[in-house]
Amino acid sequence: MANILDAIRKNQDGLLEEWVQGIKSGVRRRDLIDDRELKAQSAEVLAAICDVSADTTLDNLNAPAWQPLKDLLAGLSASRAVQGFTPSETAMFVLSLKSPLFNLIQRQAGSDAKHLFADIATVGDFVDKLALHTTDSFIHGRDQVIMRQQEEMLELSTPVVTLWDGIVALPLIGTLDSARTQVVMESLLQAIVKTNSRFAIIDITGVPTVDTLVAQHLLKTITAARLMGAECILSGIRPQIAQTIVHLGINLEDVITKAKLSDAFRLALERSGRTVTRLEKSKGSALARYGEQ
Amino acid sequence: MTGTVTKTETLPIKDSSDVVFVRQRVRVWATEMKLSLVDQTKLVTAASELGRNTLEHGGGGQLEISEVVNGLRKGIKLTFSDKGPGIPDIKLALTDGYTSRQGMGLGLGGSKRLMNEFEIQSAPGEGTTVTVIRWK
């Protein structure tokens, strides 16, 4: 088996030429990569294969000697993903090394069929594993992006905003699954204590679907807030959501609901003994004059 | 449950993120069929309820979304199926306020009211299939 590697080392330049030719005629994406870069990448891969110590074998890719090659391919896979290659195109890049290698083995083995078959099986296996490794790296990269985004989504969870002294609002956005609702409920209850609020407005304008689970979460939050002495107002109920809630049979009669956040805010102001009035014109102009001086 | 099926899509329901995806796909189908906003919301809400039932009571299963045509009428048919424990008493399950778990007990009956046609096939040990249609 070691003699395959020897043969590769001796014929490195010829192999590179044949490999690059093969890629150019077949799987190459002319729009994504130019000749020089392609050749440089191929040369790098071949060099990494030739660089391993003399006693390394092709059949155990987990040997530490192959680590540099695996790292190289993982890096290649990541950079190609950014360039817009699909994982199968990257895998094809590696797999296209098979045919020049097979040709080389055939020249070496001559008419010894048994030998030829054994070598081809070994090299085929080796190249397949390398190709799979590039795909694995690609998927691993994707997984990490997804995980990071999931964490970001949880962090993005709804801020509680103070609208006025003693009035807080919680604008809910997106899907309310159990994990997020828990975060949302805790932050609202804590904000009620911290700001000493008597009114909490929960706005569901940004919640696309209100089903029984979401309604149940909302009712639990409202009940918990009430236990803490705060009055809850549910706002942002759109017409289609209102009709759906009626058909579902969810009872929101014990909850104060408003169509718009502004209505809920006005109600909270009224209940806390405040009113919003427009400044009289004369006063307004008097203020303006005052400003000019 | 009459009508000719013109196209279908099958989605797996294996965890709670699948329920989110089910809602999104059903919304896309409803938008493509140009259902009114209220009907879209009703359909998506029912899909959410039934999808969650498939997951929580049926232990996972699948949803088949299809477009059905009956004469001049067009509609969306949703078929939720699982191989879970089945429903021993369908009439009781449809009763508002009855729940075998922690929910509000409105999902099944509510979905029936949200849709135009509603059918449950279930027997203990044989899984559950819920088929609903919302006509345009």
Automatic annotation (TrEMBL), chain A:
PROSITE patterns, alphabetized: STAS
Keyword Phosphoprotein: yes
Keyword entries, A-Z: Phosphoprotein
Gene3D superfamilies referenced in this protein's UniProt entry, alphabetically: STAS domain
Domain STAS: 157-268
Keyword Nucleotidyltransferase on entry: no
InterPro entries reported for this sequence: Bact_StressResp_Reg, RsbRD_N_dom, STAS_dom, STAS_dom_sf
Superkingdom of the organism of origin: Bacteria
PANTHER family, alphabetized: RSBT ANTAGONIST PROTEIN RSBS-RELATED, RSBT CO-ANTAGONIST PROTEIN RSBRC
Protein name, as recorded: RsbT co-antagonist protein RsbR
Species for this entry: Granulicella mallensis
Lineage, opening ranks: Bacteria, Pseudomonadati, Acidobacteriota, Terriglobia, Terriglobales
